[in-house]
Specification:
By secondary structure, this protein is of the alpha/beta class. Helices cover about 35% and strands about 20% of the residues. Strands 1-2-4-3-5-6-7-8 form an 8-stranded mixed beta sheet, with helices on both faces. A hairpin with a 3-residue loop joins strand 1 and strand 2. Helix 2 crosses helix 3. The radius of gyration is 16 Å and the shape is globular. It starts with a strand and ends with a helix.
């Protein structure tokens, strides 16, 4: 069944405009989807409608992405604050949160900052915030759907995270499902295991489709996420 998806914007915090999509029954339990670096709300299209059968599904363009504002300042904590501001602006006292890759890191920071706001947490191929070998990003050719300045600001934070972030994940109280992409993911299994170990109520499943699980196997990903969010 194809559901109607509405497109809206909202202004949060210091006047940052955030674009988002919303699908599903107005009285359904809210779930917020956060995409990966360089992706927008539309990236969730393969799984959005199925998740929205009984839920009110919001998909957000983070700052510097898609139709959201491209301001001059970027950081993962600012994106965390944007998410919290988004929940406040829409009157969402408590919601489920699903994050992929960088969006999952932002989801972790959000759930650690205000644990009472997040009911359940799904993290798709998200590493523990540990230092990793930095790789210099290369700008793709042509017009981009995201701000390249954002990439240059955020990538160093992903490569060399604030040491406090690792300790902070222990503050997450939401039951958490960590979905790992398996051997073809570029993320090390040890990093995934460390994240699961650090979050007090976390469980791990492996769907062996690499880093882009919800795009490569939308049916399996959605079934796992929906079952967990319904529990």
């Amino acid at each position: 069944m194809t559901r109607t998806t509405e497109h809206h914007t909202v202004t949060v915090n210091d006047g940052v405009r955030l674009a988002y999509e919303v699908t599903g029954p107005a009285d359904g339990p809210p779930v917020l989807l956060l995409p990966a670096l360089g992706e927008s709300a539309a990236d969730w299209a393969p799984v959005r409608d199925e998740l929205a059968r009984e839920r009110r599904v919001y998909a957000l363009d983070l700052r510097g992405h898609g139709a959201s504002a491209w301001p001059s300042t970027y950081s993962l904590p600012l994106m965390r604050d944007d998410v919290l501001g988004f929940l406040d602006a829409l009157g969402l006292v408590r919601a489920d949160l699903v994050g992929h890759s960088m969006g999952g890191v932002v989801a972790c920071l959000t759930a650690a900052a205000q644990p009472h706001r997040i009911r359940r947490l799904v993290l798709e191929d998200v590493p523990a915030p540990l230092p990793r070998e930095p790789v210099t990003p290369v700008r793709p050719e042509g017009e981009l759907s995201f701000d390249w300045a954002m990439v240059l600001a955020v990538r160093p934070q992903l490569d060399s995270p604030d040491p406090a972030w690792l300790a902070d994940v222990a503050r997450i109280t939401a039951p958490t499902l960590v979905v790992y992409g398996g051997p073809t993911s570029h993320l090390a299994p040890a990093s995934i295991d460390e994240l699961v170990r650090r979050i007090p109520d976390a469980r791990l499943i492996t769907l062996p489709y690499g880093h882009l699980i919800h795009a490569a196997a939308p049916g399996e990903f959605t079934a796992a996420a929906a079952a967990f969010l319904t529990a």
